[in-house]
Design brief:
- It is built from eight helices and six strands; from the N terminus they run H-E-H-E-E-H-E-E-E-H-H-H-H-H.
- The chain is an alpha+beta fold.
- It has a four-stranded antiparallel sheet with strand order 1-6-5-4. The chain has a two-stranded antiparallel ribbon with strand order 2-3.
- Strand 5 and strand 6 form a beta hairpin.
- It is globular and about 45 Å long.
- The two termini are 22 Å apart.
Amino acid sequence: MTMSATQSQKTVISQLKPFSPERFDACMNYLMREYRRTLDQHDITKLHVMADFYHVLKTGKQMIGGKISPWKHGPVLVEGYNRVKSLGHRFDETGPTHQGKIRVFAKSGTHYQYDTYGAIDEEDFSAAEIESLHRAWSTIMPKTFKEREDFFHGNGYMGRVWTDAKERGLKAIDWSDLIDAYDKQHGEDHTHAKLMIEVWRGDD
């Protein structure tokens, strides 16, 4: 897959670890408990992207995992989207139901509503994971739907990388490209995260 004339040999690294449904459930359960509110599928999908991004930025490794793809409405970690959507479809068939540590309990229009199911052990989360989860929440949840669209589609780092992937017809977004775009926008240097990505890949 080609990235550009100058990056023709570059391998797109869209997944740094396989998707973990257990970690996905635990992270969303944690956030809903911490902030004492329910989530819909749009909230969860965007929180997954940002929680993993911030964790990659700090450690070079995803927290939840999965492949990041440039879908119509922005970057999406496909397996997480499929998990909440399949649970929503089960609600259509049977009513309120759970899967792992999250439960779907209602539907408004096309939006399913999720809450927690069962307990989690907060000691299972590292300091980097907790920081990444809270940072994801503060990035996504105060935004209106329009502001989220602008964030993921506009001129910021997420929007630029998403647009670039769409224009090139790519089926995946590279984590290193996201890091570079973030650093360019914020004037920061996360070379260590890209080095850690290579370390983790070498351990696989």
